[in-house]
Amino acid sequence: MKLQYKTPLYLMICGMMGFTACKKSLLDVQPTDRIATSAIESDTAVFEAYVTNRYIGAKLQDKEGDGSNPGFGRGFEYSMWSSLTDESIYNNDDATWLIQRGQLAPENLGGAGVLWGRSYRSIRECNYALSILPKLTMSAGHKTRIEGELKFIRAFRYQDLIRNYGKVVLIGDKVSQLTDNLQDPSLFKRASIKEGIDYAVAQLDDAASKLPLNNDGSWLLGRATKGAALALKSRLTLYAASPLYAAGDWTAAVTAAQAVISLNKYGIYAGGYGNLFLTNETNETIFERLYTKNANHTHLEIANGPNGYGGWAGNTPLQNLVDDYEMDNGKAITDPTSGYDATKPYEHRDPRFAATVLYNGSLYRGQTVDSYIPGGKDSKDGPDNWNTTKTGYYLKKYMNDAYPLQNPWGNAGFQPWIYFRYAEILLNFAEAANEAYGPDVVPSGSSLSARTAINLIRSRPGVNMPPLAAGMSKTDMTTAVRYERRVELAFEEHRFYDVRRWKIAEVTENKPAGGVIITKNANGTFIYTPKVALDGRLFKPQHYWLPIPRSEILASGKLLEQNPFY
């Protein structure tokens, strides 16, 4: 069974707002568009539905713009988080360009403006559920699992707050009421980054001890497991040790990653890199959002497909990313001995490139992508102009050619969104182990070194990149780890946070957003001319953290501290 993402009960519960704080009306009329508080607090089936609904809900850019539909994580969107980085640009803007151009402000955040409010709403909802859980009639074992689940979800929300804003307000188990003194300064005191991460990690330790190892029986697919809690802990401890956070140490990050590896439950998927993102329930997946028929999410194929096929060219990969893919011999294209041919730039590249990016000449739906001019069907000379890629590329990762590109509604968009997978854990381990011990030291309790962990990823079936050789320097290994995260995790919402935690965003995010103009000669050869796909990219030191929305500052009576220089 899968955790369903669309039922009338869930949708009604999703519409609840302020359920514990509503005052009795004069007519004592029970609203018909929401579930009564009494039902949640007395009916175990309704309560269970309420809990599972903490995983789901609205998109990042909810129509109300106030975070009133909190959702869980982001998952697929028309404009993906990649289009706030040097991975892609969103072809149709959608407020992403202002962040790319360094124009974000407390009152000008685009879709990112809902993160603060929706995260705290979800934390409050988890606190409410935890407060009534002891009163419900269900087995002690099931109560324990639900407690672990709610603490995992709450920690996930704190992760989103910490990695976007740095210092957060820790509210513990409090469920605020409208009758509370909302001008109490203690309600808005932001904890240090270390305090925030330590709190979330402690919650995850507790959650991991309560959650099952597997999704089986009544514990449906899509619900958190022990591996999910430990994977989130691995990510947070890695962040904590990183230069931007400076709130932890690398050995703790090694230990946290090793805890996931030692479960002996996960591995590298053998069905191919591209297929991994189209397939539910692989051995590599630790925690994912599943979608079911008639509950489909953003229709990725039409949203991102080439204009020659009627697609909208949404998140178009940048030349910045394309140039970073190695040759299949493991050498950078800038290496004179790599064999790179500028007249045939897409040949003999790391196989993850073709599984991630559609380029001129890519096989696609029984044809080739023709992004050249003059006359290419997927160029500005194609059937439409507004939906032509500005970079010369289209997105391949996540796209399923079996789904219709035209009129897809109700028939497309069932790919899973993977929050955590085993390759990320290996990358976490490799980065931390290299920083703590060097490339080839095997930490106590492990069978891997930083180098051998990376080689497990590079040798995945269908990729088979040359292994990293023994004897690398620590600096060279750092470069290798960052390369692997760049290409292995592309478009999975890691790049935005990686370049910030490494404190290299002032380099990567200040480079022009590159693209290419491809001109076809009469003899069938091509000329590739670099271009700037989006002008004015700008990153300033204050952009390492997002500003807290102005509305949140004002609502606190200006008691909530804003991030510096906003």
TrEMBL record:
Keyword Ribosomal protein: no
Chief localisation class: membrane
InterPro entries: SusD-like_N, SusD_RagB_dom, TPR-like_helical_dom_sf
Localization terms from the record: Cell outer membrane
Superkingdom, natural source: Bacteria
UniProt keyword terms in alphabetical order: Cell outer membrane, Membrane, Signal
Domain (SusD-like N-terminal) ranges: 102-238
Residues of the RagB/SusD domain: 296-566
Family label: Belongs to the SusD family.
Protein name: RagB/SusD family nutrient uptake outer membrane protein
